[in-house]
From TrEMBL:
Keywords: Methyltransferase, S-adenosyl-L-methionine, Transferase. It comes from the Bacteria. It comes from Larkinella insperata. GO terms for biological process: methylation. GO terms for molecular function: methyltransferase activity. Coiled coil: none annotated. Its EC number is 2.1.1.72. The keyword Acetylation does not apply. Residues 118-369 form the DNA methylase N-4/N-6 domain. It catalyses: a 2'-deoxyadenosine in DNA + S-adenosyl-L-methionine = an N(6)-methyl-2'-deoxyadenosine in DNA + S-adenosyl-L-homocysteine + H(+). Gene3D superfamilies: Vaccinia Virus protein VP39. This is site-specific DNA-methyltransferase (adenine-specific).
Length: 689
């Protein structure tokens, strides 16, 4: 420390008096370590180092054309042309801090290293204080806003709650984790604009080292200018850093300038005017292909009519990512994007023959990317090009366990009691004693809190039903993170006819945020249901989607109608999307936009043999060895799907005819993703004779 006795005495006096230290003392305390010390309110050197297992939501692989393959290529694919082994690309939904930590410290790190490590990271993190996770959906010619969930709102508050200091803390920890994951010959591109460029540059200097800084790339784009008293802001900044001097770099060529002509011999020459004299220089064959790309890139934004446009607010053009991926990776390399957005990095990486990992916290982002990447698979399949399977992962129940362990300091009994109290508080219910299957009560209804780690099962509902009948209770709400697929509307109706009306409600992840619970912001939603019709013809089956029921609510129409001002707004209440209009005279008109059940459907998919493949997770034991465990669940293999796109908004409601290889009983899983990006599933048992 560069402190004399007077400095030390002064610091002690100020601390005892509870006063702030002058800023020059911050430097003096650390001056022996660094010439320039980067400091902000809330800076911490430690990073998250948990290693949570990943839960598989969906495995997607469009069948390749049936071709006779030889040797290793034959072993790579099954008879349907689906990938059997090798690297599977990964689309991960969740908090990228926990995801990055689990990638860096968990068993999946071994898989990453087998691929040579991550050679390229591109990130486009939030860099506007006004950005959030809300999005618009269009229905019946009207636009409705899907508000961000509480877990997304928490992420927003953690990013911007204290202004720039909280943003820096968020980015610092994540960039440090990315640094540990990046291969020695890897590069990272950090995309930002004028608001955060200078801050992110200093943070990257701190983490990667000033000597690792390669380029400040200006992405210049054009859009319709507006009158203002300053120069038009029409560029973003992309900071490029290498992990070491071994970094991969493939020179990219830009088009020759207008001063380049073709001579009669067929070779190109460059025309220049020096001191008013025209000079012609013949180029070598290598020079005639173009000049090395400079650090100002003129690439248009995604225009409104572009085929690639998804109407996702932060979507970047594929041409931009194509240049980055070609420059800093080779075919077969692994690239990553931990702020996925609409999935541009993964889509371009797939087209260029790279492997990829991409993640996002937003449910709508992950769903948008899923549809886009299926489209890429189909595009490559149609052109006879190779592509890889991809899987959708999240941290699921393991993330919930992590939150509860953190709250209870790992004590099991404390965790169980704390968990039930936490859920009841979020649901605004009171705890009750003297019951086996019931935990609370709210306005005449009894409450059961489902388990943290496993789905609420039919047998559990039977226990709840028995206790309610014994005590003459007629109404109960069952809260759960997951529900067994066999809990059909008919089963719930049968219990109601026997005297107990049971309502199933999802527990949102938001309950783990104390601020959201205290403010009463956590919303529990009724479980949605879907219905299907199965048609069996010999060894073949087709599935028809026939109904979908949701009770999703995010708005309060009554509050809106109380407004003294004229209003026109599209709202979502009890499974309906309604346009509410109130004129100056107070007359209220309500127009139902979701006239049919299928207006809610954005995507649906089928696994025709759901219990064919067990879901296996990899965890490290106390000795640091990797072990495999069956979760008790099965892998959803997406064998057929239909979804809406901007180009083709129509859905198919009847699947292809799927042919089983042999007779027997099978379980078919049908999954629906609604226009808000929320999943609902159902299992159908079929008997093929």
């Amino acid at each position: 420390m560069n402190l004399n006795d007077n400095d030390k005495g002064r610091i002690i006096e100020l601390i005892k008096a509870g006063e702030k230290l002058p800023k020059e003392y911050i430097y003096k305390l650390f001056s022996d370590e660094e010439d320039v010390f980067l400091f902000w309110n809330g800076r911490k050197e430690d990073v998250t180092n948990v290693a949570l297992p990943f839960h598989s939501i969906e495995h997607i692989d469009e069948p390749r054309r049936e071709e006779k393959k030889v040797g290793d290529m034959f072993e790579m694919f099954d008879t349907r042309g689906r990938q059997l082994k090798g690297w599977t690309n990964k689309l991960i939904w969740g908090d990228n801090k926990l995801i990055l930590s689990s990638l860096a410290n968990g068993p999946i790190r071994e898989e990453i290293e087998k691929q040579g490590g991550i050679k390229l990271i591109y990130i486009d993190p939030p860099f506007a204080v006004g950005a959030d996770f809300g999005f618009e959906i269009e229905i019946g010619g009207e636009k409705a806003e899907k508000k961000q969930s509480i877990i997304e709102e928490i992420a927003y508050r953690d990013t911007w709650g204290k202004g720039i200091s909280s943003y820096l803390s968020m980015m610092y920890e994540r960039l440090k984790l990315m640094h540990t994951l990046l291969a020695e010959d890897g590069s990272i591109y950090v995309h930002c604009d004028w608001r955060m460029s200078s801050y992110l540059k200093i943070i990257c200097d701190d983490i990667f080292g000033v000597e690792s800084f390669i380029n400040e790339i200006a992405w210049h784009y054009k859009r319709w200018p507006s009158k203002s008293r300053n120069f038009q802001k029409m560029h973003d900044i992309i900071h490029l850093y290498g992990k070491s001097d071994k970094r991969i770099f493939n020179v990219q060529l830009q088009e020759l300038t207008e001063g380049t002509n073709k001579r009669w011999q067929g070779k190109k020459s460059k025309v220049e005017f020096l001191n008013g004299i025209r000079q012609v220089t013949q180029m070598t064959e290598e020079q005639s292909e173009g000049t090395p790309q400079d650090d100002v890139w003129d690439i248009p934004v995604v225009n409104s009519q572009a085929i690639e446009r998804l109407d996702y607010p932060t979507q970047k053009p594929e041409a931009l990512l194509e240049r980055i991926i070609k420059a800093s990776s080779n075919k077969g390399d692994l690239v990553a994007d931990f702020f996925c957005g609409s999935g541009t990095t993964a889509a371009v990486a797939e087209k260029l023959g790279r492997k990829w990992i991409t993640t996002d916290l937003g449910r709508f982002s992950v769903h948008t990317a899923r549809k886009r990447l299926i489209g890429v698979q189909r595009e490559l399949q149609a052109s006879g090009k190779n592509f890889r399977a991809f899987e959708i992962l999240n941290l699921g129940k393991y993330e919930r366990q992590f939150f509860m362990d953190d709250l209870s300091n790992g004590k099991r009994k404390a965790k169980e009691a704390l968990y039930v109290d936490l859920i009841l508080e979020a649901y605004k219910a009171k705890r009750i004693d003297g019951h086996t299957a019931l935990h609370g009560q709210k306005t005449g209804r009894f409450i059961h809190v489902g388990p943290l780690d496993v789905p609420v099962t039919q047998s559990r509902l039977a226990e709840i039903f028995a206790e309610c009948r014994k005590n003459l209770y007629t109404q109960v709400d069952v809260l759960g993170f997951e529900f067994e697929m066999g809990l059909t509307p008919q089963f719930i109706q049968d219990l109601k006819e026997k005297g107990v009306a049971i309502t199933l409600k999802y527990i949102p992840k938001d309950v783990f945020d104390k601020r959201a619970v205290e403010k009463g912001q956590v919303k529990f939603f009724d479980v949605a249901y879907l219905n299907t019709k199965e048609k069996i013809n010999g060894e073949s089956i087709t599935i028809e989607l026939t109904d979908f029921v949701t009770h999703y609510t995010q708005d309060d129409i009554e509050e809106l109608q109380k407004s003294e001002r004229p209003v026109s707004k599209v709202v979502i209440e009890d499974g309906q999307i309604i346009k509410v209009e109130k004129d100056k005279s107070g007359i209220i008109n309500r127009t139902l936009l979701t006239e049919n059940w299928y207006d809610w459907i954005d995507y649906w998919a089928i696994d025709f043999n759901y219990e064919d493949k067990k879901e296996i997770i990899k965890v490290k034991n106390e000795e640091g060895e990797t072990e495999e465990h069956w979760t008790g669940n099965y892998l959803f293999e997406n064998e057929w799907q239909s979804f809406r796109t901007k180009k083709n908004p129509k859905l198919e409601f009847t699947s292809i005819a799927y042919k089983y290889k042999k007779a027997g009983k099978y379980k078919v899983m049908v999954k629906v993703v609604d226009i808000l990006g929320i999943d609902t599933s159902k299992i159908v048992e079929v008997n093929i004779k």
